[in-house]
Design brief:
mainly beta, nine-stranded antiparallel sheet, 7 helices, five-stranded antiparallel sheet
Amino acid sequence: MPEEQPRVLTASVHDFRYFAALLRGVNFVNRASVSITPDGFTVTVEENRCLTATAFVFSHVFDEFVYNPDAAQLSQPSQPPEDDDDELTATAFEIPLNTLMDCLNLFGTAGMGAGTSQKRKKSPGDGEDSEGGGSGRNDGKGKGRADADDAGGNARLDQWFAPGKGTGMRMSYVGPGHPLTLLVAEESGGPTATCEITTWDPEPRLELAFDSDAAVLKIILKSSWLRDALSELDPNTEKLTIIGNPPAPLGRAPRASAPPCLRLRAVGQFGSTEMDYPNDREVLETCECAQPVAFTYRYQHISRALRALQSSLKTSLRIDYEGLLSLQFMMPAPRRQGGRRSEAFIEFWCLPLEE
């Protein structure tokens, strides 16, 4: 590829472990849609027309992020220019996400960040799909402390972007019909590798738009509370029902007989399990629920979020009146050079079962 050829995207970071952790949170389906904007890009996957997951990777996650949408027109001179300004602000294509993750892990360093699933035995409940998109159940140590020994004692999230640590990456994309190019380099003049990943034209995907105004249940809680509960469920669990109840009015203590604000009911081949979350600020930071609600989901879909849960700090759980479930995971924010923090998040949308 000629050096002078204009690129739609050029992004680089001297330690890509945080970037890899974000992608790993949605790496349960191989084919992923990438949408680039001036603010960063998103990576979206879909499963069974019932579940979508998106990793939001903002531009400040990188040391360098240059987006030039006009280069897409230059790479295809035979096509007339687009008149729609909205089309010019976003560039979309699809990639094999497994291949991208393999390229990032060429030197065995992509699994050092939060939520790693490298170097572990696969459990019977992992549920890898036919496209080789990773596992749905993750029994790693999680929360950024995993593999601290492998990272040279670098267990603090604030040090993920410290100079001289990790493996650097430079990513570029010329435009439609061209591959996504990755230059991966070890630190201190170590080995380098250049990878070209095939890209495809984007295909229509399931659009699950969540209307916050139509939400019947809104809860924010620490991810560890939800992660621990889901991780203890039998991998053969078939259905998971999320039950919400109105909290006690402000200034009034809840009755002893009052139902919990949040209850998870898991049903499988060998019976059912219920887990209750009281309206305690130590457990639920916020809870908004006007009347009792209950919706049931396929546990296989909910378990896909376990990998993102392993890496996240807080979870926003929302359900609208039709039962559409939205799970937003706030990812830990490593401190960048100059003291800035780069935040990102992962969001899952799941349709309920019709009962």
